[in-house]
Predict the structure.
Amino acid sequence: MRRSAARPVIIDCDPGHDDALALVLAAGDPGVRLLGVSTVAGNQTLDKTTRNALRILALAGVTDVPVAAGCDRPLVGELTVAADIHGASGLDGPDLDVPVAEVADVHGVELMRRLIVGAAEPVTLIATGPLTNVGLLLRRHPEVVPGVRRVVFMGGSTDRGNTTPYGEFNIVTDPEAADIVLRSGLPTTMIGLNVTHRALATTEIIAEFRGLGTPLGAVCAELMTYFAGTYRRVFGFAHPPVHDPIAVAAVIDPALVRTVAAPVAVELAGTYTRGATVVDLHGRTGREAAVDVAVGLEVDAFWRLLMAAVRTAGGAAR
Ligand code: RIB
Ligand code: CA
């Protein structure tokens, strides 16, 4: 059931084709109030994910939301980007040469801190990239914890991975940061591949984006067309899964995503499994069931929600 009042949210992201749709959903749906955007290195280097976030927000008509660049590498180890999936720019496909706002002259973690402590009510943190910024925020500024309503992150999986056989990209990129978040004690929702792989941008969806007749609709169609090509080539998918907007949709309308409470651990030391999310769905470990793990998605309702937001953010006639 949708709430009447908009939830204040911060999105931490690594645009990224599906991050772009997450930003557009937040821009176009009245169910969330976007306080700010922090960017993180992941799909591409930090300079590129930051530039991409600015471009998408400009295209979505968002001019009053601060964007700040966060961490340019994981807490431990080196960054490995996903150029094979998102291209050299991180948003290959459309021509995104649009005037953009200035990036905030503050670190992304500091922007999150300021927005949380300054908010009139607890803020929901939506993370759609590696959890480096969120992990660092919780470590450097534990005073923000009372001001965080929930962390909703796209990452992990209750079954197989996509970057390693058992590791999903966001978690594999920074397992230590994910471990900090999962041990934080904050209410946490995990949106894993086991659910996101059900939200496929089919040719019908792409045609519907294009049919909106707006520059934003056309960009979404071109982003998904490019994404379809890389997912077909790398994973043999007929259509690309849009992982990240599901994390936003879960905040807008929690009824869209069915969750179960379960213990979730991140493997930090496994030779072949580092970055795997170990989800104890049957209570075999006796550990606290501290994470709300997504196990179901109202797929058609999700696409209606996203399409409506692209229509609204892009200024399409109703
Ligand atoms: O594994 C999918 C996730 O990794 C998505 O958030 C995608 O954008 C990449 O960041
Ligand atoms: Ca992402």
